[in-house]
Design goal:
Elements (H helix, E strand, L loop, with lengths): L5 H4 L19 E3 L10 H11 L13 H11 L6 E5 H12 L10 E6 L3 H9 L3 E6 L8 H11 L3 E5 L11 H10 L3 E5 L21 E6 L10 E5 L2 H7 L10 H12 L5 H20 L3 E2 L6 E5 L4 H10 L2 E9 L3 E7 L3 H16 L6
Parallel strand pairs: 1-11, 3-4, 3-5, 5-6, 6-7
Antiparallel strand pairs: 2-8, 7-8, 9-10, 10-12, 11-12
Helix pairs in contact: 2-9, 3-9, 4-5, 6-7, 10-12
Length: 366
């Protein structure tokens, strides 16, 4: 048996990439993954248990995820023909980058990504052979629209990814800003609304047209169903026909299909938890700012916090006391920062209490 010649077999695009590594570890308080801290109410759990019993484990699931897509279309009021289901939004991001790789002879496809943002846009695009044009947010962590539009017109990217609200900053692209980008390019503009349920704004799903250059991503992960890995792409039928050519067969498992249908058909029962998170977001923002930290406005279920150069020290201090938040190192414009998921009232109180202790002890790394 010969040795595998990996350097010869691997594409050059992988050389500069690092794997996306969600934080692990066992911590009593997890405020690092932007999950919903509240389990579904008993009615949903009961319906979920009964629905899962119907899955025939020895059979493949519906390859088109039709009932799941119908439930999504019914909730958002869009044609089911414009909905594709995926194994989380990550898979759908990959499908889009694989599909829209057209370029002139000798050139490369390209994407435009305002940064800092969700890392999978860049990873998926780079792995698929794209040039990645990253446009930093301004010093207030708002979109630098002048630069974005300049690069859109100059580079003519195949895809523009907009996380809205943006992960990790909580920033929000206005309707006017998104329309300006849509009008400036004939490439695809993907509005990723993973955190849209916390924004207080209407979804862009109703704006998707057949043949138009707008696509929208949604997920159930942030509203209480992270374990399902249930994502959705809403786009014109012509584009979805092309994406379907490279979609994996049976890409959404049977359990996720029936469970996602239950969540979408009973979505009104999730509203109280969503509203509580929004209320707690404002409370946590006030209290952390009251400790002297810089807390940026957020339209998501997390806060982006600067601690005057003490971000890593506070991150370690909290870990030692059983609280995990997300440490973000050397971000463009922002430098080091913390992304703190909004938890339950008790978890948020504990975070504030331990942050106050950190300051009282001098606010330095151990």
């Amino acid at each position: 048996m010969s040795d595998l010649d990996l350097p010869r077999l691997l594409p050059g695009e992988l050389a500069g990439l690092s794997a996306y590594e969600p934080p692990g570890g066992d911590y009593p308080v997890r405020l690092d993954a932007n999950e919903n801290p509240y389990p579904p109410d008993p009615v949903i759990l009961d319906k979920l248990a009964r629905a899962l019993e119907s899955v025939q484990v020895n059979r493949y699931p519906d390859p088109a995820s039709l009932d799941l897509r119908k439930a999504f279309a019914g909730h958002f009021g869009c044609p089911v023909e414009r909905v594709m289901a995926g194994n989380g939004s990550d898979e759908l991001i990959g499908f889009l980058t694989w599909t829209l790789r057209g370029c002139e002879a000798g050139g490369k496809p390209s994407v435009l990504i305002p940064i800092p943002t969700f890392g999978m846009y860049s990873i998926a695009a780079s792995a698929a052979g794209y040039d990645v044009h990253e446009i930093p947010f301004d010093s207030n962590l708002e979109p630098d629209m002048e630069k974005v539009l300049e690069v859109v017109r100059e580079k003519a990217p195949n895809i523009v990814f907009l996380s809205n609200p943006n992960n990790p900053t909580g920033s929000f692209f206005s309707k006017e800003q998104i329309r300006a980008i849509l009008n400036a390019t004939d490439g695809l503009v993907v509005v990723d609304e993973a955190y849209g349920d916390f924004s207080g704004e209407k979804s862009w799903i109703c704006e998707v047209e057949s043949g138009g250059n707008l696509a929208v991503l949604r997920t159930l992960s942030k509203v209480g169903a992270a374990a399902l890995r249930s994502g959705f792409l809403v786009a014109g039928e012509e584009l979805l026909d092309e994406v379907d050519k490279i979609r994996f067969p049976f890409n959404v498992n049977g359990y996720t299909q029936v469970a996602g249908e239950v969540f979408l058909s009973n979505f009104e029962r999730l509203h109280s938890g969503i509203n509580e998170i929004v209320d707690q977001r404002e409370r946590l923002s006030r209290e952390m700012a009251g400790l002297g930290f810089t807390v940026f406005p957020s339209r998501a279920n997390f806060l982006f916090i600067k601690c005057g150069g003490r971000e890593k020290a506070l991150w370690r201090f909290l870990q030692d006391r059983g609280i995990m938040v997300r440490f973000l190192a050397r971000l463009s414009v922002a430098g080091d920062a913390l992304r703190v998921t909004v938890g339950t009232p008790g978890e948020n109180s504990l975070l504030v209490e331990k942050s106050r202790e950190f300051l009282a002890e001098g606010g330095k790394d151990a």
